[in-house]
Specification:
Layout lengths: L12 H24 L14 E7 L2 E7 L5 H8 L18 E4 L2 E4 L12 E3 L12 H8 L9 H15 L4 H7 L10 H11 L8
Length: 206
């Protein structure tokens, strides 16, 4: 019995050219990706360490130390000691962390603190105080628009933005603007009543 030598893999010029083309194409793509991820000339590159940034919160400058991944919610609660903005779902689904950024409502748990630099941030603490309630805060109390109260800060911020934007919102407009705020206690009708009261509307359904 004779042992046959192992067969050698076939090699052709066509296979070589195909392989070389694939390597060249991959190299070109790699260079393009590397070029696209390079910072623009003069751009500031931040590392993973803590950085001090300045946020304008309720009309006052606040210096906070954050990582590049820190959310605005955490920067407000832990860095600026403004705990009125609630951390509930932490995924942008409930509206408990709503603040205003340049007059527009945002979920602060889904907004990076770095992205808020240079903008005017309004939290529940910036709307009123226990001794001098904002009209919306007062209306929430008068209309009994809260039970456990955990969602209330975000509700009041969204409600205030609604009236500021629309003046005298209709019930449908109120429902649309408040759709991102969840009240697990189910006080929606009282919330709508409070907003209409501040907006100078005739209260519907009461």
């Amino acid at each position: 019995m004779t042992n046959k030598p192992p067969s050698r893999p076939e090699f052709s010029r066509r296979a070589f050219l195909k392989g070389a083309s694939a390597v060249a194409a991959g190299s070109a793509v790699g260079h393009e990706i590397a070029a696209a991820t390079q910072p623009e000339s003069g751009a500031t590159v931040f590392g993973t360490e803590l950085h001090t940034i300045e946020l304008t919160v309720n009309g006052k400058p606040k210096q906070v130390k954050v990582e590049t991944r820190t959310t605005l919610l955490d920067a407000l609660r832990e860095g600026a000691d403004l705990t009125g903005t609630k951390k509930v779902c932490d995924r942008g689904a409930c509206g408990g962390c709503t603040v205003m950024l340049d007059g527009e409502t945002v979920n602060s748990c889904m907004t990076l603190a770095f992205d808020a630099v240079g903008s005017k941030i309004t939290t529940i603490e910036g709307l009123g105080t226990p001794d001098n309630l904002h009209p919306m805060q007062k209306a929430f109390v008068e209309c009994d628009a809260l039970q456990c109260g955990f969602c209330t800060p975000g509700m009041i911020v969204s409600a205030t933005a609604c009236v500021q934007k629309r003046g005298k919102p209709s019930l449908d407009q109120i429902k649309a603007d408040m759709s991102g705020n969840i009240c697990r206690c189910g006080t929606y009708t009282r919330v709508f009543e409070a907003i209409q009261k501040v907006g100078g509307q005739k209260v519907e359904g009461r």
